[in-house]
Design brief:
- The complex is a heterodimer of chains A (164) and B (324).
- Chain A is of the alpha/beta class and 164 residues long.
- Helices cover 23% and strands 29% of the residues of chain A.
- Chain A has 3 helices and 7 strands.
- Chain A has a 5-stranded parallel β-sheet.
- The two termini of chain A are 31 Å apart.
- With 324 residues, chain B is an alpha/beta fold.
- In chain B, helix 4 links the parallel strand 3 and strand 4.
- The radius of gyration of chain B is 20 Å and the shape is globular.
- The chains are: A alpha/beta (164), B alpha/beta (324).
- Chains A and B meet through strand 3, helix 3 and strand 6 of A and helix 1 and helix 11 of B.
Chain lengths: 164, 324
């Protein structure tokens, strides 16, 4: 996480328009951790938004899975901002696609970059991360989960066979 | 991608094809609708009031009775979810040529709609459609039976203003016997734990209404006193076979909500009305447009609640919090 934070800072010359948007739910915790780390080193508290992508998923009417809708909370205007979109695990890229569409319906950011804690590969869409915590090689039928403790700190990650 | 939550996943399932009544819903299911509607409300508050969720779905509104608010509310709800909405009002449809309900429904089904939102003057009419068609049927009012989405939007508005249902004192005042809104609200609010009181002229109170778990009082003053929520009902001239009160002036003198009656209300009481209002009959303009009134909030919330219903029925929504 330290390295992610410093990489973001390194590649962002102007912090005044930088904002973090966390994708529910893991991405929210990670966005808060990044916010803390950047505050500690730069003394600036970056604004944080929360994105729920449920309504923008491309499988909502084709899977039998149930999806509970929760709130999107972006308490600032996105226009002209340099957004860092934060997610825990990057896999097919479909969630990222949904997040980009959801965000564009809220405003027109100047730039959007993607920060993920774990990139597990196996993309199905032309999407790539700008900042990666760790590349993890797993089989297509395995799932990767990032675990958080009650305080929202990263406890670790587990790889296991997918249930379905 | 997966997520791990610090709290356990909520196991509320929504497996209904149709929304026909409140009576068959559980308190958990009602709360799932309200929670889902909460997330949908913000869509109507942004610049781009549309999400792509129900793209490619077709929603038909089939209204055998007059309506402005409910029909428009459903149409807007469908459009904000990117569904294609088609409106049929029977005054301009082949019902005028004598087509039966079943034939009409079969013909609509042949065009593969995903949902049919139906209002009919005969109680139970939506059930007939629901049992024969693959499409989801939403009851938008069937005679004096039920109007489930109205009760859900009322519950949403009450929760938004009062934050709870447990032990909340809610009074329904007016024409209880002919009101589908009253029936659905009584079912909904008692399931959620509210204490419901009804009041109205004796000719407009159904016999044995107390068996629904409500308190009955005979004057509007008793109903208003100590109530957190005052819900006025419309005088339904179209559903009355005979004259149930001498004149509208008499009605308003005894059961009209006026500033005078409101003097006996709690300072933080809210006044609701499902619309359309008969100003000067069951509610005076001073109260309808006054500080206690949340009548227009009800209309705003109606869109969010109907979006939630369409989503739950058509989007395979609800259920457990997802791991994506």
């Amino acid at each position: 996480m330290n390295r992610l934070a410093s990489e973001i800072l390194e590649k962002t010359p102007d912090l005044s328009t930088l904002v973090l948007v966390g994708m529910r739910t893991g991405g929210i915790y990670l966005a808060r951790i990044l916010q803390d780390k950047i505050k500690a080193s730069e003394g600036i508290e970056l604004p944080i938004g929360v994105l729920d992508i449920t309504l923008y998923r491309d499988d909502i009417t084709i899977t039998n899975q149930h999806h509970f809708v929760r709130k999107t909370e972006i308490p600032f205007a996105l226009g002209g901002k340099d957004v860092v979109l934060v997610d825990d695990v990057l896999f097919t890229g479909r969630s990222t696609r949904a997040a980009l569409d959801a965000m564009m319906d809220h405003g027109r950011p100047k730039t959007v970059r993607l920060a993920v804690l774990i990139d597990r590969g196996q993309r199905e869409l032309p999407i790539r991360p700008d900042f990666v915590g760790k590349d993890v090689a797993v089989l297509p039928d395995e799932s990767v989960e990032v675990l958080f403790d009650e305080k929202g700190k990263v406890k670790g990650a587990v790889v296991e066979k997918r249930k379905s | 991608m997966s997520e791990t939550l610090t709290h356990a996943a909520k196991e509320i399932s929504w497996d209904k094809k149709d929304l026909l009544d409140i009576k068959s819903l559980s308190a958990d299911e009602i709360e799932l609708v309200l929670n889902t509607a909460e997330s949908f409300k913000q869509i109507s508050e942004r610049d781009i009031k549309k999400v792509p969720t129900l793209r490619g779905k077709t929603v038909i509104t089939l209204f055998y009775e007059a309506s402005t608010r409910t029909r428009v509310s459903f149409e807007i709800a469908g459009k904000r979810l990117s569904a294609d909405t088609v409106n049929i009002s029977t005054s301009t449809s082949s019902v005028q040529k004598g087509e039966t309900l079943i034939d009409m429904a079969k013909n609509l089904e042949a065009m593969a709609p995903d949902a049919i939102i139906m209002r009919h003057n005969v109680p139970g009419a939506p059930y007939i459609l629901a049992s024969r068609l693959a499409a989801s049927i939403i009851n938008a009012g069937d005679g004096a039976h039920e109007h489930p989405t109205q009760a859900l939007l009322d519950a949403f508005t009450i929760r938004e203003k009062k934050g709870r249902f447990e032990k909340l004192r809610v009074s329904l005042i007016g024409d209880i016997a002919h009101s589908r809104v009253a029936r659905s609200n009584i079912f909904c609010l008692t399931k959620l734990g509210a204490n419901v009181t009804v009041s109205g002229p004796a000719t407009m109170l159904p016999r044995y209404v107390e068996r629904l778990g409500v308190r009955v009082v005979s004057t509007i003053q008793e109903a208003v006193e100590g109530s957190d929520v005052i819900m006025m009902l419309r005088i339904q001239k179209e559903r009355m076979g005979k004259v149930l009160f001498p004149s509208t002036r008499d009605y308003s003198r005894f059961f009209g909500l006026t500033p005078d009656v409101m003097r006996g209300a709690l300072p933080d009481a809210i006044v609701m009305h499902p619309g359309p209002m008969n100003r000067g009959v069951e509610i005076s303009s001073e109260v309808a447009d006054g500080p206690y009134s949340v009548i227009l909030d009800q209309v705003t919330n109606g869109v969010a609640v109907r979006m939630a219903i369409l989503y739950l029925l058509l989007g395979r929504g609800g259920g457990y919090e997802d791991a994506h």
